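Format notes (please read before filing issues)

Several people have asked whether sequences and structure tokens are stored in separate files. They are not. Every record keeps both together, in the order shown below: the sequence lines, then the token lines. Line labels are part of the format and must not be stripped during preprocessing.
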Amino acid sequence: VVPIAVLFCSSILWGLTWLPLKYLHGQGVESLILLTVSCGVVGVLALPVLWRQWDRSRRNPGVLLLVTLLGGSASLAFNCALMYGDVVRVMVLFYLVPLWSALGGRLVLGERIDALRLVSVGLALTGVWLILGGWKLLDAPFSWLDGLALASGFAFAMNNLVFRATPAVPLASKISMMFWGCSLLGLGLLAAGVEAVPVLAPLNWLWIVLMGLVWYMAATVGSQWAVTHLEAGQAGVIMVMELIAAVASAALLGESVLTATHAVGVGCVLVASVLESRRPAASSQPAGN
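Then the structure lines:
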């Protein structure tokens, strides 16, 4: 019950991430400098944890490298797409996560895909489809932002599988490497000239740091701790609550209109989440601190 509740809350927090991202963008903050600095600050603060756990982590260097690449690229792509793209469209494309999670859980971890899981995944994907307007999803041309959203969902689902499959590697070390991965990838893109480093007011730099220390840290720690205690497919469906939070908040703030079709889609996702939350939790061992 506790992992489900934590994942539920952290997913809602992720779903509201577009609010500070859009605000900071309006203040002249671009995505790469935001993610490089905010995630880098968290990574630096986590260095003592990495040092303390290094004796356990160094036995699996490939795991840390995978988490750095998968987790870092997922965070970078998702936040960039959300900052510059349409909130609902980005979230919908990202939320093919239940499909990737269920398939990956079966192929990588050997998790069973039974009738209930098929129903819950089907309901979740149907809800995602309806929320975007059904076939109207295909009306707009596929853009590079759509590609980022799609890639971020796949990388995020695969990163969750790595977390669950490697309980011997300390959880805190894996989370720390996600932040380092996002920061280093962002730094590399800045060095390549993808974005210019903006001139910002001191208050905006403070908001960037707080974004990492408060928002990103809480959402990431909560979601990654929870997925180590749940089956991959189960976690993937519950995390669709992130989409509901994004759509509902966008509708309430006038960013989008919630139609009857959207409401039916949200209902499908809610039913899928309830079905998954009633499944018994996975018996995997906690990853440790």
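For reference, the curators noted about this record: The radius of gyration is 18 Å. Confidence is low (pLDDT under 50) at residues 281-289.
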